[in-house]
Design brief:
Rossmann fold; globular; alpha/beta
Length: 110
């Protein structure tokens, strides 16, 4: 986590910043219609800008974007959650908090 810049200056995760960085450093040059991007995490912006445009760019350059969220689906979209903002740019979002859900997710993706 220390070397990935996932944690912003506030000490909390910052998805918008990570998506911008990923797009700039990897997406523009290395993503292709054969690429599948898998995002793991709760999608909580911690009140930072979500930068959904960067995720849109990633999705447009990729075959698919899947989001694996460990939170219960009932918590998505509450408080600082930007899962709904990111949803249009994902082929699918999955609740994955245990091995059963992970297995179901993998079955769907493959």
């Amino acid at each position: 986590m220390r070397n990935t810049n996932v944690i912003g200056p506030t000490g909390h995760s910052d998805y918008g910043r990570v998506f911008q960085q990923f797009w700039t450093e990897i997406g523009e040059s290395d993503l292709s219609p054969r690429s599948t991007v898998i995002i793991t995490g709760d999608g909580r912006s911690n009140y930072q800008p979500p930068e959904a445009t960067a995720l849109r760019n990633i999705a447009q350059r990729s075959k698919s974007v899947f989001w694996l969220n460990p939170e219960q689906r009932s918590e998505w979209g509450t408080f600082d959650s930007d899962v709904g903002t990111y949803a249009p740019h994902c082929r699918r979002q999955f609740e994955v908090s245990d091995l059963r859900q992970l297995a179901a997710c993998v079955e769907h993706i493959i």
